[in-house]
Structures are given as C-alpha cells and as structure tokens.
Amino acid sequence: MNTTLTRRRVSAALAAGALAVSLGALAPHASADDGDGDGPFGPACASVPKEGAGSFDGMAQDPVATAAANNPALSTLVTAVKKAGLVDTLNNAEDITVFAPTNDAFAKIPKQDLDKVLADKATLTKILTYHVVDQPVHKADLSDGAFKTLEGGTLTTSASGETYKVNGTATIVCGDISTSNATVHIIDTVLMPK
C-alpha cells in the first residue's frame, strides 16, 4: 500500500475531525443544564430534539402555545388548550410561566374522566389556567415557592436535591425552557385546582 496516500488520508481525516470539533465548539446551542443553573434542567430534557422547531432553540423563537405544539410529548396538552380556546390567550400573554403536563401525565387520568373534562370547556379552562402563573418562575424560584395562577388558586413548589415538585405531587421533568413569551416547566402529573 502506498504510504504517502495513507498519510494523506489520515491527515485529511484528522483535519476534518478537528474542523468539526472547532465548529461544534463555536456553534450556539441550548442543552440540558450543565450544573451552572442556566438553561433547561431535568432528566427529560435529554429527549428534546437537538434541532428544529421542537428543539430548545426552536421553542425559544415561538410563543408558548406554538412552541408546545412542536413538542410531541405535549400533544394532549395542545389538544386541550385548543378545545378550551386558550391558544391566543397563551400566545399573546407576556412573561408567563406554564407548568405543562406531558401526554403521560394526562394518561394517568382515567380515559372516561379525561374525555368528560375535554368536553366541558369551563372545567377544562379552569384546570388549564391553574397551570399558568402570570410571572416568570425560574429554577432559582422553585425551591420554596408559592405562585398565584391565572385560575385564581395557588401553586406551591419545593426542591429536594435536584428534584423539583409542584404541589407535592407533580415532578418537573424538564424545567426552565424558554419560549418567546414564557418559561415552561414540563411536569409528569396534571394539577387539579381546589
């Protein structure tokens, strides 16, 4: 085998690898929290797409209801928001926080009960607006917080190590996601107003 050709191939491969690493280091990106307290945090953040409309960068460009529609894990929430007629309300609000239940959170509700709620606009609106706070709420605010919701009730938050709870029942599985008008904390349980 020609050693000059082999050296050239190895050199070209190393140069391409170095260029890819250099470009990767320069490229802006959002990822799960690396411990410095900035950016999204939580175990489910790893499943967020790295690029496109449903990525952290993509969601940061859109208002909250539109951003949620681009996240497959929130499709049941998006359906509920549409049925309640809250898309424009959420997209036009400023500096809100949404505690967004996943599809799995909705799946914990017996299907018959969920179907009944989805068919009752007043009850659905009450439940959904209980998940929205009219102020920014970030990771630093979650360790021992109480926040008034758009529904009129109060949500409480607490922390134990790196686990953050809402009302003592829902766990934040991916928090501090930015959209153009909101902070989103994805939770594993639907919250019910009193």
Give the secondary structure arrangement, pairings included:
Elements: H1 3-26, H2 56-61, H3 64-69, H4 75-84, H5 87-92, E1 96-101, H6 103-107, H7 111-119, H8 121-129, E2 132-133, E3 144-148, E4 154-160, E5 163-166, E6 170-178, E7 182-187
Helix pairs in contact: 4-8
Account of the 3D structure:
This protein is an alpha+beta fold. It has eight helices and seven strands, in the order αααααβαααββββββ. The chain is globular.
Short description:
By secondary structure, the chain is of the alpha+beta class.
Protein traits:
2 domains; alpha+beta; disordered N terminus; 7-stranded mixed β-sheet; 20% strand; globular; 194 residues; FAS1 domain
